Amino acid sequence: MNVIENINAVNSEKIKRWNRMETSEKLHEYKILKKSGQSQREIAKNISVPRTTLQSWVKYRESLDALAEVIEFFESTIGLAILHRLIAALHVVFAECGACGVRLISLFLKLSKLDRFVASSEESQRKINVNIEEIIVKHAKEETARLAKLQPKKNITVAQDETFTGGLCLVGIDLVSGFILLEKAVESRDAYTWTSCMQEAMSGFQVTIVQSTSDEAKGIISHVENDLSAHHSPDLFHVQQALSKAVSAPISAKIRGLENESRNALEDLNKAKLKQENQVQNNIKKQAISNEIEIKILTALHLEAENEKNRLKQKQTEIRAAIKGIGTDYHLINIENGKRVTSSVITPLIEEKIKAIKKIAEEEGFRESSLNLIDKASRVVPKMTSTIDFVSNYIRREIDKLSLNASEKLAVHEILIPAFYYDLNKKSMIENKCSELVNIFQRSSSCVEGRNGVISFKHHQLHDMSERKRGVMTAIHNFFNLRKDKKTAAERFFENKPADLFQKVLDSISIPARPLSPPRKIFGGNVAAAF
């Protein structure tokens, strides 16, 4: 070791680094001893603090631009604990759950005048933000690994889809709990990529995927049917969306055009009538008679446009009722009488509504592209009805495993299953099983579509999305956000309560640092401006 290194080593041993909590405690002792009449030198010796250090602490507090009571509070141990929690909450709630960046957090600290006690620069807050994000991602990984070992074995249905906001990202969510199993940026969305990503995501979980709900993407279907050996359930939303796109948009455009025609004809008619009145008043009979013909023509045009508009509105109502009716028909239980349904009952009901929609499209002369969309939706109907058969057979097999007699099985199928389909809460072993079984029927991947919207919203704010930020978003969804049941997605999925994410953040981050150059006191100012 050379001379300079030796000097630095010696100095590093002598220099005492005081954290904010220690400083607060020492200054509290100083204040008490000062009241007893001791000199500053004696106090410094008694509390084991160099006198020059103590002097700098006291001078720093006295120079802060805030009321003495405010300084006393925020520089106390309780005040520091509140600042600690406040800064952590600001970053978790506004920067991670919301769409606020560190610039606005920095602005908040300045406007609230907490910049007297907390380093409020954007760089200081950025470092805190990065630290918190790393803690959140680490916490999610650790809790996922821990809870996976405690998780009971069960079968699940997942919703799968891709989002292209900020690059291609594969998303997979457990439909019952809302737990995000997969949210990963990739280069491709083929079956191989889906399978490798899902296998990695499901590693260590005590669950089996028996069904996947998604759109008709070939990569997902191949991945589900060939690699997962699971049932693929078509997404009702995409069927209704295709039908709506095929007929709702064109018929709405026609109605808007007729409304314009009717409005223009009415305006021309009113002008013609006003003109006729002026001609009659001025005794211009010849022109008045000529204008009468124009009024009749305009009246006929207006009436024709109104009648055609009303006719199309009636067709529009029929289309909407048919599209909505598909959703009403596509249930495991008849929602009107509570009885179990079969594919043989549902198939003709759905096909009838699609045929009615196609008939209207053909009568109104819609484009070939609209008819192709209707045919596309029609091709999904067999898959929808096969899902009813799959769920019915799955429920029957699982109920058979419970070793019930014939009358008990009948009660389960005709009473308990329909009851749980309508979200009734019961607690026995059979009832819990029924609650689990009815959740096998999933007809929409809307939760993934909603998640895609969240990703798009966040990407709009950030303009880019790092792997860490994406991991934070997943962790917040799984381990922080609550539903009406006051549970996180992780608690519902693993059936065990995870450790508190915010408390983990609070325990892991340091008390926020003081500002290097806080606003200094300006003597002579009014009390209102002091804080």
Structure description:
This protein is α/β, with parallel strands linked by helices. It has 21 helices and 5 strands. Strands 3-2-1-4-5 form a 5-stranded mixed β-sheet, sandwiched between helices. Helix 6 packs across helix 8, helix 9 packs across helix 10 and helix 12 packs antiparallel against helix 13. The longest helix is centred in the middle third of the chain and has 46 residues, at 236-281.
TL;DR?
By secondary structure, this protein is of the alpha/beta class. The chain has helices spanning about 5-15, 20-35, 40-45, 50-65, 70-75, 75-95, 100-110, 120-150, 190-200, 220-225, 235-280, 285-330, 345-365, 370-380, 380-400, 405-420, 430-440, 445-460, 465-480, 490-495, 500-510, and strands at about 155-165, 170-175, 180-185, 205-215, 230-235.
**What is the oligomer described by this structure?**
single chain
Share of helical residues: 55-70%
Structural class: alpha/beta
How much β-strand is present in the residues?
5-15%
Cα shape:
flat
- Helix count equals 21
**Alpha carbon gap, first and last residue:** 52 Å
pLDDT below 50 for ≥5 consecutive residues: which ranges? 1-12, 523-528
In round numbers, the mean pLDDT is: 84
Could you give the count of β-strands? Answer: 5
* SSE topology string: HHHHHHHHEEEHEHEHHHHHHHHHHH
In angstroms, what is the radius of gyration?
Answer: 35 Å
Let me know the largest β-sheet: 5 strands, mixed
Strand order, main sheet: write it out.
3-2-1-4-5
